[in-house]
Design the sequence.
């Protein structure tokens, strides 16, 4: 993808710019210092705060900042005059299921989130740890003898889709297809409405079929849990269940594999951190929080609900605000030595999972997957490095992480 | 002695406090945190109580000194 070069990051930032995707940190430092809420006309226009305190305030101000659209790229209707896609069920053709509760505001958000929290509680997630560990081990078995693997493609990318498929109750052997769809939606699709629309239709259509199967034959999984749940004595509408399943599949895949990939990218280049985690595995939960802080993958958007001047910025109803939590997590006014990964950092109130009512519902799952995948990798491959640091490719925009990352070991 | 408090109106269930100290905190089935033992912090856990305050992204935890 090529775009016009950026002249001034304060007034014309481009989250898809190659330099930005590869190394956004110096740009955030400049913005935080000189223009803490930047603006751009690109990609449908948006505002972008980079200071921790502004992100904290805006995320909690749900009166002025709605979550009804969390992506920046415009998502218009399908082109006029096109025949309806026969694969799309009739009930869904005119219905925008959204992805509740990430795309919901109260009051819907309140019950939609309440519904989702129990299966993602720390205890509920602990039940998935043995399967996740087994999966990591079998992936490593597949390449450990070769002395070389793509840490992103062969490892990080393989883990979250299979775990979330198990949880939802859909076939794990279709994980590669989910991965393609989700990348189409959240990576390629962010700058291409056609690609994004097709990816969304594929995911919705697929999940709709699985939901019908679960209606006929309930199982002990998340889809059946959602279908059998009641809110105020009424079953949850099926399109809502579909939207939530869509969220779980999309949000549970791209984000966590980005985090696992970034963690391996860091460890490949820091033998002292590897050695310490091998010697003191009990440090892993603390290290995971620090890696989440330093390499936060997710930047979701908000929509301004009415004309409003935030810190003097003339925001208008309908404007997008890019919640740059990753930049806030490197704010020197909150984190000493923010660009340094200190794997035993004691004070770390990072907001990688957001803050306020939209705190990532899957945070316990993401943490568990990160901890287990790093632990298993280091147990088998304690000493490794990037084959060619310049050959690593990154995805960016609203979810940042390595996408091709060859690593080698003795 | 000190007491630790979780402000239920601010907690969003990040579970950072639980991760730091299961002796001081517990979470309900939705993941929201509550102090154990009416917030009483034994001397050996004072450091953990202060770390819970420092690590809570919602600023929902506080400690108070009591005579």
Sequence:
């Amino acid at each position: 993808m090529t775009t016009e070069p950026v002249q001034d990051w304060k007034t014309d930032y481009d989250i898809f710019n190659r330099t930005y995707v590869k190394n956004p940190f110096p740009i955030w430092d400049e913005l935080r210092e000189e223009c803490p809420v930047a603006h751009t006309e690109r990609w449908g226009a948006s505002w972008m705060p980079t200071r921790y305190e502004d992100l904290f305030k805006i995320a909690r101000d749900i009166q002025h900042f709605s979550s009804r659209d969390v992506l920046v790229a415009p998502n218009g209707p399908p082109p006029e005059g096109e025949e309806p896609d026969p694969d799309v069920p009739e009930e869904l053709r005119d219905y925008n299921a959204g992805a509740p509760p990430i795309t919901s505001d109260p009051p819907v958000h309140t019950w939609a989130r309440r519904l989702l929290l129990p299966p993602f509680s720390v205890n509920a997630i602990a039940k998935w740890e043995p399967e996740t560990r087994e999966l990591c081990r079998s992936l490593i078995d597949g390449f450990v003898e070769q002395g070389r693997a793509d840490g992103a493609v062969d490892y990080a990318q393989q883990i979250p889709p299979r775990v979330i498929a198990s949880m939802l109750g859909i076939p794990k052997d279709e994980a590669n297809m989910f991965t393609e769809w989700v990348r189409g939606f959240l990576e390629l699709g962010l700058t291409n409405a056609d690609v994004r629309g097709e990816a969304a239709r594929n995911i919705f259509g697929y999940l709709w079929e699985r939901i019908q199967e679960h209606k006929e034959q309930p199982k002990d999984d998340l889809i059946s849990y959602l279908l059998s749940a009641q809110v105020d004595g009424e079953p949850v509408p099926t399109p809502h269940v579909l939207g939530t399943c869509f969220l779980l599949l999309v949000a549970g895949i791209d984000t966590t594999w980005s985090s696992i990939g970034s963690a391996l990218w860091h460890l490949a280049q820091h033998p002292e951190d590897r050695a310490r985690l091998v010697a003191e595995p009990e440090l892993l939960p603390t290290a995971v929080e620090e890696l989440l802080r330093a390499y936060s993958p997710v930047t979701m958007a908000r929509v301004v609900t009415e004309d409003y001047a935030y810190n003097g910025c003339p925001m208008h109803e309908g404007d997008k605000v890019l919640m740059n939590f990753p930049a806030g997590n490197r704010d020197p006014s909150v984190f000493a030595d923010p660009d340094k990964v200190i794997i035993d950092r004691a004070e770390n109130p990072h907001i990688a999972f957001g803050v306020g009512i939209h705190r990532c519902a899957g945070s316990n799952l993401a943490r568990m997957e990160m901890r287990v995948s790093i632990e298993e990798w280091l147990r088998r491959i304690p000493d490794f490095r990037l084959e060619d640091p310049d050959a690593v490719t990154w995805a960016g925009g609203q979810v940042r992480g390595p996408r091709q990352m060859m690593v080698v070991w003795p | 002695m000190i007491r630790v408090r979780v402000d239920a109106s601010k907690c969003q269930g990040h579970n950072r406090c639980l991760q730091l100290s299961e002796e001081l905190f517990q979470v309900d089935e939705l993941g929201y945190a509550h102090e154990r033992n009416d917030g009483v912090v034994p001397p050996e856990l004072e450091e953990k109580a202060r770390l819970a305050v420092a690590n809570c992204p919602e600023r929902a935890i506080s400690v108070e000194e009591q005579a």
Q: What stands out?
A: The interface with chain B takes residues 114, 117-118, 120-122, 285, 289, 346-351, 353, 355-357, 359, 363-364 of chain A (CB under 8 Å).
